[in-house]
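Hi V.,

You were right to ask for the full record rather than a summary. Here it is.
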Amino acid sequence: MRIVSLVPHATELCFALGLGDQVVGVTHECDFPPEAAQATAVTADLLPDGLDSAGIDAAVKEKTGGGEAIYALDAEALKELEPDLIITQALCPVCAVGYDDVAAVAAEMEEPPKIVSLDPHTFGETMVDIRTVAQATGTEREALALIASQRERVDAVVAAVADEPIVSCVAIEWLDPVFVAGHWTPQLIEMAGGDDPLGLPGEASPQLDWETVGAAEPEVVVVMPCGFDAARSLELAEEFREPLLATGARKIVCVDGSATFSRPGPRLVDGLENLAHILHPGAVPLAPGPILELQ
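Predicted structure:
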């Protein structure tokens, strides 16, 4: 089977199911596992380089508000790959090429490929996606093993924090303007022994303001900008040190949002383990990391 993955978390999932040698096309953002770089990139970023947080937000809103894409799809390269299966998404126009654009190109192919769209809103739905890809690729046995492994790690975290006090925790997905995390992240916080007073499980990430974040009186703030690693997250946190400290949180930490939170793939469990260690370091002494604290 020849697979083109047009969303990074689907690429990660394909490799986790042992399908890496069948992935012939990926996006320009597919950077994990490293072997994914050997596949042909069929997308490109249309946003200007060098924008700050506010600039990125403004550019995205301008393009998506006007019905424009923020990613380019190389239709000819996609056709030349002659995929049997294309995995895409329709959840977020900021995360990947639009589903309609993909479907239009696929319809022009001599032998149109099957298209599978992964659109999880909750942690449970991310697990269902494993089965969805497995059913499309004949890897049901591998999927069962992966799901069992994921569940074992989740259960271990939940058991480890079961007797710990619940910690109020706000996860910030963007800093200018402020977006707090939604979808599956509030569930991860709950499983890690925390309480998210602002995020809504299964719902889109809400845009708020710093005053609202402070009014929630979080004990811990986790900075996890969408698309950025821990080092870049810490740089952004330094830029917004004053409003972050004004929240009154006793701990402000920065994590790899791109790897472990914004991509709803297998590494979400890494994110859960990170959160559990952040909230309850005595109960969960080890975490995949990196975790960088704003001093």
